[in-house]
Every structure is written in C-alpha cells, then in structure tokens.
Amino acid sequence: MHKQVNVQALVLYSRPLGEGDRLLTLYTRELGKISAVAPGARKMKSKLAAAVELFSRGQFLLYRGRSMYTVTQAAQEGQHQAIRQELKLYACGLYLAELVTKAVEENEANPAIFELLLESWQHLETGKTKPALLARFFELKLLDLLGYRPHLDGCAGCGKCRGAIYWSDKSGGILCADCGPGDADAFSLSRGTCALAQYLLKAKPGRLASLRVEVEQHKELKRLVQSFYQYWTDIGSIKSAAFLEEIT
Ligand SMILES: [Zn+2]
Q1: Which of 44, 75, 116, 221 lies 20 to 30 angstroms, CA to CA, from 245?
Q2: pLDDT, tens digit, for every residue of 31-47?
Q3: pLDDT of residue 187
Q4: With b meaning 16 or more CB within 10 Å and e meaning fewer, what string describes 95-122?
Q5: Please, which residues have CB within 8 angstroms of residue 159's CB and are 6 or more apart in sequence?
C-alpha cells in the first residue's frame, strides 16, 4: 500500500489540536471520509493554514499512518468565503457538512457525494436559494446516494396511486388510499409535498433559486425526511440542525 496519497478534499470539520496543529475531517473524492492531522497549521507562516479551514476545497497530499492521515501538502482551490461570512449560509453549510459526517462510513469512496456537497456549497455561496430549501434538497439527494431513495412514483405497496396518499417510512415511500390505512405508522401526505420531493430528487441546485415553496409544504417535507433518516440510517441527532432552524 502506498504511504503517500494525493486527493481532492472538502473540509467538513477543523479544530485546534495541541500546540499548533489542526485535526480535520475531510470528505475526499478518492477515499471518502477520513480523519487527518495538519501539523503546524495554526502557526503564523504555515502553508497549510488556508487550505485546512472549514468549507475549504483543495488538493491534499497525505501520508497514510497506522490510524490516521497526516497532511504533508495542501493547496486551496476554493474557500467559500460568503458561507463563512454570512450566518444563515454558515448555518446551512455546517449542517450539510455534519449530515455527511454522520451519514457516511470512513474510507468508503463515493464521488457522487463529493460532487453533491461541492455543488451544494457552491450554490449556497451564491445566496440565490433559501438555505432551508437547499438543506431539504441536500437531504433527499444524499438519501438517494446512500442507497435509500424514497419511493415516490406510485404506491410502494401496489404500484397504483389514486385518491389520498400516505407516507410510510417502513414501506420506503408513499402508499395509496388502499394500502396506507393498513400501515399503522403511515401518515397522510399532501400531493403538493409529494410533488415537491419528486422535483427536488431530480433537480440540480441551480434550479432551486426560482422554486416557490409554501411554508406548510416545506414543514411537511422536513418532518417526512427527518423521520425517514431516523428510520433508515444511524445518523442520530445533528447538532447544527437546531442552529439552522433557529437562524432561518
Ligand atoms: Zn397501494
């Protein structure tokens, strides 16, 4: 196994460690989520300093140790300055980072998740879409990439979809008026919210800016997606979710 590895990385987490180091959680295109130490990154003249800040994107040269990586070189390629400066954007950027950190295993590469996070941060940076809507978009897309795409095209029980519809975590998506009442945990869902979820699952971030969403629909979608995460994944509670909620 090569000891040196070159990766493209997004900084999900960065905190001071010891005298002048930083401890990082990186999401890399090549290796997935990893932990790394950036030695001396807090020293005045460190060449690593800019590249290892939260929300940075860069090219990293890493040394593979027994339990952790060490950053030997890093060149920043993007810093997402607006996300750092504006509280609403910051809260959302942090939430996306924490969601990825909690939802993925270490050392499992998934370039599509790398792309999703990068393009979401880049879009957030423009300030064109409400952070809360971008968060819902990201949650749905991430579910899909983790292998838990909600079933929204027709009833998950019988395939048909007439009349009222229901949502069921256990069935993995929507149920029809015949199947829904038989599922003790299913709750009724508005068609508008279902259509919104379908749209977000297929959309690119650039399309979100012009999307108008009613408050009730947004609330319903949020509740549904959160409940789906709790049922299907081990993410537990996301600290920055409350912060995002408060700010937006
Ligand atoms: Zn059905």
Answers
A1: 116
A2: 999 999 999 999 988 99
A3: 92
A4: bbbbbbebbbeeeebbeebbebbbebbe
A5: none
Q: Which among 150, 191, 155, 153 is positioned nearest to 176, based on CA atoms?
A: 155
Residue 15 carries which side chain, given as an amino acid letter?
A: R
- On whether the CB atoms of residues 100 and 117 are closer than 8 A, the answer is yes
Distance 160 CA to ligand 1 centre (A): 6
The number of helix segments (H) and strand segments (E) in the chain equals 7, 8
Q: How far is the CA of 196 from the centre of ligand 1 (A)?
A: 20
* Amino acid sitting at position 246: E
Q: Which domains does the chain have, with CATH numbers?
A: 4-79 (2.40.50.140), 82-148+190-247 (1.20.1440.120)
- H helices within the chain, ranges in order? 81-85, 87-103, 111-126, 131-145, 191-202, 215-232, 239-247
pLDDT score of 1 = 60
Tell me the CA–centroid distance for residue 193 and ligand 1, in Å: 18
**57 CA to middle of ligand 1, Å?**
45
124 — pLDDT class (breaks 50, 70, 90): very high
